[in-house]
Amino acid sequence: PLPAQASLSAADILRYSRQLVLPELGVRGQLLLARSSVLVVGCGGLGCPLAQYLAAAGVGRLGLVDHDVVETSNLHRQVLHGEARRGLPKALSAAAALRLLNSTVQYVPYCGALSPRTALELVRQYDVVADCSDNVPTRYLVNDACVLAGKPLVSGSALRLEGQLVVYNYQGGPCYRCLFPKPPPPETVTNCADGGVLGVVPGIVGCIQALEVLKIASGMGSSFGQFMLMFDAREGRFRNIKLRPKKPDCAVCGDNPSVTCLQDYEAFCGSSATDKCRTLHLL
Amino acid sequence: PLPAQASLSAADILRYSRQLVLPELGVRGQLLLARSSVLVVGCGGLGCPLAQYLAAAGVGRLGLVDHDVVETSNLHRQVLHGEARRGLPKALSAAAALRLLNSTVQYVPYCGALSPRTALELVRQYDVVADCSDNVPTRYLVNDACVLAGKPLVSGSALRLEGQLVVYNYQGGPCYRCLFPKPPPPETVTNCADGGVLGVVPGIVGCIQALEVLKIASGMGSSFGQFMLMFDAREGRFRNIKLRPKKPDCAVCGDNPSVTCLQDYEAFCGSSATDKCRTLHLL
Amino acid sequence: MAAPVSLQVEFGGGAELLFDGVKKHQVTLPCQPEPWDIRNLLKWIKQNLLKERPELFMQGESVRPGILVLINDADWELMGELDYKLQDQDNVLFISTLHGG
Amino acid sequence: MAAPVSLQVEFGGGAELLFDGVKKHQVTLPCQPEPWDIRNLLKWIKQNLLKERPELFMQGESVRPGILVLINDADWELMGELDYKLQDQDNVLFISTLHGG
Ligand SMILES: [Zn+2]
Ligand SMILES: [Zn+2]
Predict the structure, then answer these.
(1) Which architecture does CATH list for D5-96?
(2) Tens of pLDDT, residues B11-52
(3) Could you say which residues from 30 to 89 on chain B have a Cβ atom under 8 Å away from some Cβ of chain A?
(4) The pTM is what?
(5) From the CB of residue B277, how many other CB atoms can be counted at a distance below 10 Å?
(6) Domain ranges (residues) in chain C
(7) Where is this cross-link: Glycyl lysine isopeptide (Gly-Lys) (interchain with K-? in acceptor proteins) (chains C, D) (predicted)?
């Protein structure tokens, strides 16, 4: 965490007054938020609303990772970027937008894909990680880095009219690999470009991710350490699914892990983390 | 509704491509969105995320009502406004922010409180109304105007760590008065200034309101015409509550309505729609 | 004699603040000659759970305006309101409606 | 002989696209000598519901990686996985995990 402040400034008290009166947060929780740093992996449909509400709430430092640039087809769901920012790296565009909302937060943009070479050192610098990525190799990479660094991972995903959320590696609960020891066959994976997504669906999931990050960072604790939230936008229905506990034979968080450093996740998954056309053609 | 377009422009097809591929929406649904107009009553914690996702999705016209100006204590949850817009009317600030995101939508800011003198004529100009207000008199006023004008009302509310959402006056379902024939005693009503609110809670509710507006405007239909969504942020739990049907003896939507024109809602509720200190001192 | 009835009684939307901030209460209603209904439950709550300012929760023999009563996640109007006969293991939720935004 | 078993079988996260886009199926499994378990249910689904490309849903006698099986809203790992004995009125949900963002 960042250095502790002894107290809130008068400006902070004014800005956060509506949440300071909550007994569940209070000055104590706000000071914890101000000390905490959150790494946002992906500044797209999930990362935009997530970063927006974390910045507004007064998290101390936000790391913003994205390798992509803003495109017109992003704007229906990636609400931090604007028409004038097309062509800019998303991490820079997001940081610029967030600075207008709350200039007292530190923003650290990383323009590039999270890679196995750098992910562990990066994750070690943050207290909580939010997986807002859009592909399978990155999800395994972020998971393994969080397990190796001992950080909680608030993971969201959305496609078409559905969303899912789990908090991994939190308070003795399972990690992503405990649930998914083997990656899905690449031909079964659909991305937002192919499958489509109604923009407000990642909006809803990203906001709920922000809520869980705030609950973890402020000491309230998350309810999703061994539960998955499933959301069906068509039906307007949310379900809380009880998940398995941490698995003793998990390759990365188990008792005898075989994964002790980060690997080649694109090879493991048979797909690319950065291409628009995701399946690796291996022949 | 606005005049129908025969087809989408090439720019629209590019911008909305990720949602056009959804069979539930498609070009037909997008053209319906482009024809539809939505009145957003309140540009605060609920109205900001709602307007953001409606603008991004390509609604034709957004009316933005708010009588207030941007203050520092709003910024922890009212994410469309920024530090530099403090002191500006919220309706203008919201319109300016939304224009940067999607300049192809028409924005109509109304700087002033919704009043019984003007509300009915205003509501008649829109297809769907979103109640993002923060006080009881406005909630009855918006409801009665929607019933008299025959418009569906997507109503959200949030306080502390909880949120609620209902769609009123929709497809033969109940109106707000069917559920709440009598206003609550003023001394039992808590506002966000007194009770506090975690900013992302109205963020989540406002996004779900946007989803229901989009489902109604695009012809998918809402699931909340006779259901209330209740959200407990602390527990991370959503509940869908089955509500009563429309009541034949409802004062405004019943078989023999006593309310046939808009009234004095501040007197009816014993509280003010615009004061910071809400209870009317009648003596 | 009706058998004792076990209920989960919940408060939300701020109504829990009248009950020491506790949202979920496991309640066992004692045996009594007639079956338990919501009318009797409200009397029982007033005597046994409600610590102060009953006028912020009740009005006459019913709940005050602005509180919704939900029986097993359904509006009590669908179930007979005050006359609903409570069943063992029912969930009764009293929720104060929110107006903030 | 085990009695017939009625289930609600649901598909989500895109898995429903292999079943004509239908998310909810009311299923009645016929009487058979041994009790119905998830292993047998998967065989029955493959023969009776799955229209095409079974490799996108199954791998061997189980589901393919990336599909979670949930029995009455709990992870099937908590319930015995393939060996779980189905009860009448169980809800079985097959959900494809999402990766979009
Ligand atoms: Zn693990
Ligand atoms: Zn009515």
Answers:
(1) Roll (3.10)
(2) 999 999 999 999 999 999 999 999 999 999 999 999 999 999
(3) 49, 52-53, 56-58, 72-73, 75-77, 79, 81-84
(4) 0.97
(5) 11
(6) 5-96
(7) 101
